[in-house]
Amino acid sequence: MNDQAPGRSYEHWFGEEGRQGFIHRSWMRSQGYTDEVFDGRPVIGICNTWSELTPCNSHLRRLAESVKRGVWQAGGFPLEFPVMSLGETMLRPTAMLFRNLLSMDVEESLRGNPVDATVLLTGCDKTTPGSVMGAASVDLPTIVVTGGPMLNGKFRGCDIGSGTAVWQFTQELNSGRMSVEDYAAAESGMSRSNGHCMTMGTASTMACMTEALGLQLPGSAAVPAVDARRYAIAQRAGQRIVDMAHEGQKLSDVVTKDSFVNAIRTNAAIGGSTNAVIHLLAIAGRMGIDLTLEDMDRCSDVPWLVDLQPSGRYLMEDFYYAGGLPAVMREILPLLQGEAITVSGRTVRENVESAERVEGTDVIRTFDAPLGTGAGTAVLRGNLAPDGAVIKQSAATPRLSRHRGQALVFSSIEDYDKAVDDPELDVTPDTILVLQNSGPRGYPGMPEVGNMTIPRKLAEQGVDDMVRISDARMSGTAYGTVVLHVSPESAVGGPLGLVRTGDWIELDVEQRRLHLDVDEAELERRRGEWKPVELDADRGWQRLYIDHVLQADRGCDLDFLVGRSGSKVARQSH
To answer: How many Å from the N-terminal Cα to the C-terminal Cα in the chain?
Structure first.
């Protein structure tokens, strides 16, 4: 008999007497397990978002084997199970529509099965926050193992970044600076190994966020997917989760308000994705932690240290070789809550105080010689965004951070796509492009379309950035002076839906201001004429989502999922 106190899997499943115990043990024996696995050792649920429809996660079955090896070594009983996988590049209409559905899958799978602790295997953008949200609602001992970034893309002897190169090359193609043949040739060199985007896009950002929150083992976020050290880390995670199960160290024991402060400040230092804002808010909501947009803005005044695409030059492979996230967190350690505990069993300070920033490389800058300051995600407010909007300062053009221009309004991304190549489009470099009805309810799902392509007539003139405003999101791999997550969204009657072509809009990032220069009487008249867009979603998940999704300033979770229900075992009937 195992000498540790039995966990919930033994108490409510494998250790039961009579018919119930007979059923649970007998059916598990069909897989060839021997008596020892039922002796009270902790059952480790390996929650896997593997799918061949999610290219970023297509190697996670192999990674699961490494986790299992570690679990067996430490005396646990590993059981792998699948949950919904969300492929950012494949899933329509947008993977964000299904993040909360994945979280429900994870939550109910963990609660309803004989699991004492879990390892979450994630990779692509929404699989990491969705899995963490579900695990947070159950609150078992939890470790995240991300799949790691791809190797650097290669084209014509240069490194190219996944996602970022798509936006860059498409713009060059539209401007006539790149041939159709070269555009096609770049396609085969961009994604050349297993792994998620190797830019500091949302996948890489959320891998760094889970490490900064204390949910990943230190140093694991940036290891390339095909590097043997990625599999060694997975094995160590398998060993460590068994210890956590014995110790009873739950997810809520690791992730606290201090952990979120660390994550926000780390996100600013790495030039991370604006999507982190929505995902961190949603995770905090599941845990009952009071996290707001004001916290995001207040904690983002941090030196910008990591020179990675899309805001900089390098890629995640270079970042790992330069010291990875521990080196960054050591540089900003005076700004972090160093005593916050992590899944390693040690504090943040203990994890990173001996980390080394590799000399002779400028991928990671020092605290005293940053790429810039105050380059994190800024939160804007004003009569156009009463509940807030965000802009990624490190990806924006400085001269446009204070700008006044006339709006050119599009009611849908489809309308914009039809107009963007029109040589007669009434647009100038000073125009502010406004996209409506692309928020959580209006699309539905809040797609990554906020970084609207520069109109062809301007691209041909050499214009490479202009102010764009929407209630949508943008890919973490994208760049530009793009105002996102305008709340409340236009589809629920927010002021963004009242903007008309020709209206003057003022953006002032330094003053955190986003103002529609239309008097209140005229806005009130427009409110009286406003009608919501009709959506073709009268059943299933989309209907449930539209009826219950919260706005971006609250993380776009479903209202009835906020908070947690714990791991209490339900009724015993079969």
So the answer is: 28
Q: Which of 274, 36, 243, 48 is nearest to 146 (CA)?
A: 48
What's the CA gap between 43 and 6, in Å, rounded?
A: 10
- Which two structure tokens, joined as six digits, stand for 297? 């803005």
CB-CB neighbours of 133 under 10 Å: 28
d(CA 284, CA 286): 5
Considering all CA atoms of the chain, what is the largest pairwise distance in Å, rounded to the nearest integer?
79
Rg (C-alpha) for the chain, rounded Å, is 24
Q: Which residues contact 171 (CB under 8 A, 6 or more apart)?
A: 453, 454, 459, 464
Average pLDDT across each block of 10 residues of the chain; the chain has 574 residues. List them in order: 71 93 95 95 98 97 98 98 96 97 98 98 98 98 98 93 88 88 91 95 97 98 98 98 97 98 97 97 98 95 95 96 98 98 98 94 95 88 98 94 98 96 97 98 96 94 96 92 98 97 98 97 96 88 97 98 92 74
Give 394: exposed, middle or buried? Use CB within 10 Å, 0-12, 13-18, 19+: buried
The number of beta carbons lying within 10 Å of the beta carbon of residue 569 is 13
Cβ-proximal residues to 32 (8 Å cutoff; 6+ apart), any chain: none
Q: What is the pTM of this model?
A: 0.96
> Any idea how long the chain is?
574
Range 86-89 contact pairs with CB under 8 angstroms and sequence separation of 24 or more: 86/49, 86/54, 86/124, 86/125, 86/126, 86/127, 86/130, 87/51, 87/53, 87/54, 87/55, 87/56, 87/57, 87/124, 88/54, 88/56, 88/124, 88/125, 88/126, 88/202, 88/203, 89/55, 89/56
> CA–CA separation, 277 vs 135, rounded Å?
19
Is the link from the previous residue into 42 a cis peptide, with omega within 30 of 0? Answer: no
CA distances from 121 to 151, 291, 364, 484, 534 (A): 19, 26, 27, 29, 38
